[in-house]
Amino acid sequence: MGPATQQRRRTRARRPATSKPRLTVDDDGDVRCEACGSGDDADELLLCDGCDRGVHIFCLRPILPRVPAGDWFCPSCTTTATTSAKSGVIQTKIPKQFPLIQTKIVDFFKIQRGPAAAAAEPTEGKKRKRNALVVSKKKSRKLLPFTPSEDPARRLTQMASLATALTATGAVFSNDLTYVPGMAPRSANRAALEAGGMQVLPREDVETLSLCKRMMARGEWPPLLVVFDPVEGFTVEADKCIKDLTIITEYVGDVDYLRNREHDDGDSMMTLLSASPPSKSLVVCPDKRSNIARYINGINNHTPEGRKKQNLKCVRYAVDGECRVLLVANRDISKGERLYYDYNGSEHEYPTHHFV
Fold first, then answer.
1. How far apart are CA 257 and CA 278, in angstroms?
2. What is the distance of C-alpha 118 from the center of its chain?
3. Is the pLDDT of residue 64 over 80?
4. Fewest C-beta atoms under 10 Å: which of 45, 139, 196, 300?
5. Lowest mean pLDDT, pick from 13-27, 202-216, 263-277
6. Secondary structure of residue 24 in the 3-state scheme
7. pLDDT at 118 over 50
8. To which H or E segment does residue 145 belong?
9. Cα distances (Å, whole numbers) of residue 348 to 78, 201, 270
10. Nearest alpha carbon to residue 147 among 237, 210, 218, 241
11. How far apart are CA 155 and CA 176, in angstroms?
12. From the CA atom positions of the chain, what is the Rg in Å?
């Protein structure tokens, strides 16, 4: 099986049906971009449903991968950004930082406290040691658990960075797939329906994944920081060295049928199940409930420099009969290096040509 790919869709900019005058037009009456002043690349020119002004998706900061299908309002109409004529971009304001207060962070992520969390540490410490001592060639290819930062204050900083991103994007933290009434039930998540079959995650790797989940539940966080980049938006970087084959995170969110999301405007949906028949295909929708996976960016498939940035692989596995999506390091990652994976896998339908 190849890596999982995000659900892809393209739409063109819609021209308003009204005859309301546009604020930025050329001599022929065509819309021009408010940032760069050009009317070229009309299929990538957004029209604000509030003020009717136009802006290229690649002139926004952060950029958009494609034109939204539904209504769109420019940053000026949403009062969250400023326009710079000198830089030729429309810049979104830096989001407000989540307070670096232990009690607030613990409550936000519902970190386990008390004897139950402490009692679990010795057993799982042994498991981590056993993984670290694997030396045979066959076992060296087993997945590894992440190694948390030793400094508790640093872990709080890492958690606060994710809380900042989740709060800014209107989502709440979840580290598991969620099944919401009105969407796909858990019984629909059956790996046996995968067209062509789905690879099974080995039992030892299932235990490693469970270990990572338990560590996070008690506040032993993966060494990752969510940072806000003016071009890429929220993105994730390593806060310490990460070894090849380390589990970074599971891609989580609300599970729904693909048929219910065909006209959804979200650009973060991930394929969970490509079923036979297609009507039973499932996607993960992280817009309301998600974890750090939502903020890991994709490579630019169209440039050698973009492809070289890939340091994660995105793979779908069958775990106890259910589909799961994991992001795993595909090489050693240095501290400060940003994380990237291929949104398209073996396909090239997700628009990444404007990615950095």
1. 10
2. 31
3. no
4. 196
5. 13-27
6. coil
7. no
8. none
9. 33, 26, 15
10. 241
11. 20
12. 22
Q: Which amino acid does the sequence have at 211?
A: L
- Residue type present at position 106: V
pLDDT tens digits, one per residue of 173-196: 999 999 999 999 999 999 999 999
Report residue 121 as tokens: 């540490």
Query: If you search the block for the tokens 């508790």, which residue do you land on?
Result: 152
Using DSSP's 3-state secondary structure scheme, residue 97 falls into: coil
**Are residues 178 and 254 in contact, defined by beta-carbon separation less than 8 angstroms?**
yes
Residue 246 three-state SS: strand
Q: Which two tokens stand for residue 186?
A: 């858990």
CA angle (209 as vertex; 203, 214 as ends), nearest 5: 125
Rounded Cα–Cα distance for residues 154 and 223 (Å): 9
Confirm whether pTM is higher than 0.85.
Answer: no
Q: Looking up tokens 């919401």, which residue turns up? A: 180
Pair 291, 250: CB distance under 8 Å: yes
Please state, in angstroms and rounded to a whole number, the distance separating the CA atoms of residues 85 and 23: 16
Token pair, residue 175, equals 């580290």
Q: What is the largest CA-CA distance in the chain?
A: 73
**Tokens (6 digits) for 191:** 């790996």
Task: Over range 322-334, report the average pLDDT.
Answer: 96
Q: How far apart are CA 66 and CA 305, in angstroms?
A: 21
Residue with token string 């290229």: 56
Length of the chain: 356
Cα 287 to Cα 319: distance, rounded to the nearest angstrom: 24
Note the pLDDT tens digit of each residue in 220-231.
999 999 999 877
Tokens of 198: 């789905």
Which value, to the nearest 10 degrees, does the dihedral of the CA atoms of residues 287, 180, 312, 225 take?
Answer: 50
CA torsion through residues 60, 61, 65, 68, sign: negative
- φ, ψ for residue 141 (rounded to 5)? -90, 0
